[in-house]
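Worked example 3 (structure in, sequence out).
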């Protein structure tokens, strides 16, 4: 049995999918800020979230691995700027 959505619900769902990339970029920029401040286990946890966000944005795995290996928030911030300029 298929669920029927009202027109209002359909607009909300459509808006979510239309803006998904912008929301992901915003979240990634927030994670970069958190990475600057994190140390130790907290830093590892932030990288886990960052990798997930980068995968959702469709970044190639070799580039994600390189960024993780460098562990440089400045490089990640530059990537966010590039992605924002493209969108």
């Amino acid at each position: 049995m298929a669920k029927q959505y009202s027109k209002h619900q359909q607009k909300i769902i459509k808006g979510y999918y239309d803006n998904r990339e912008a929301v992901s970029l915003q979240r990634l920029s927030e994670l970069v800020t958190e990475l600057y401040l994190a140390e130790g286990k907290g830093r590892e946890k932030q990288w886990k979230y960052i990798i997930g966000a980068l995968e959702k944005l469709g970044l190639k795995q070799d580039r994600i691995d390189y960024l993780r290996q460098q562990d440089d928030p400045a490089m990640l911030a530059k990537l966010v700027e590039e992605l924002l300029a493209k969108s």
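Notes: The CA atoms of residues 26 and 80 lie 9 Å apart. The chain has a mean pLDDT of 91.
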